[in-house]
Amino acid sequence: MKNNFKKDIDTSNMPYANKKVYELIQKETNGNVRAFAQSINVSQQVLNRIFCIDKRNGKYPSVSNDIKKGIIEVYDKDEIWFIADIDSNESEMSKHSSEEENNKELDGVEGKAIPLLPVSAQGGRLNDFIVSVRESDCEKVVSPIKDADFAIPVSGDSMAPEYPNGSQVHVKKINENAFIEWGRVYVLDTCNGAVIKRIVPSEREGCVKCLSINPDPIYAPFEVNLDDVYGIYRVMLCLSIK
């Protein structure tokens, strides 16, 4: 098993999170996969897998929770890093500056300041786009939920009336490998974008079934393969303008 990447590896079609991990390996261990894998306490085989297209489905595997956990703990990253362009020192300075400004604006307001991601949870069929935003570009909002990671706007009517178009959901990432509370509403970060749905078990192995709340037949249930899911976020709160 080779310890280093090929110099001509093509990352243009990789999912954003996979590409970020690849670039971090280049930066921290000069492309030495084995050394990087050891540093985050995962096997080289597990790490190599996310950079190779799975021949069974023709797609890249998602970055596992073990890889994310190791990178967060060892290289001082956070969940936002995997979906946001905050690599450079300039971005980090901008991020901290933005946080200070937002904290000043939110001073005296009870709750936790969390990023409002400038991308919608579609609330309908999956759309073909990749989330790629700077955290410094994110507006901060106050959440009464202490454990919330960030907020996402809802777009579409499939989850109405409980989660109407234009509302805002505050979410927390879960470990889907450990436990999924069936029947609850989650935001799924997939290879085709973000979607908000009620999740129930699927008869197909390795899949979950996504249900809409709106009874209109155009919002029919559909299934998502967990190999295409980068993260599952439990909806903790929904805010809407009445």
From TrEMBL:
It comes from Paraprevotella clara. Residues 144-228 form the Peptidase S24/S26A/S26B/S26C domain. Keywords: DNA-binding, Transcription, Transcription regulation. This is Peptidase S24-like protein. It comes from the Bacteria. One of its GO terms (molecular function) is DNA binding. InterPro entries: LexA-like, LexA/Signal_pep-like_sf, Peptidase_S24_S26A/B/C.
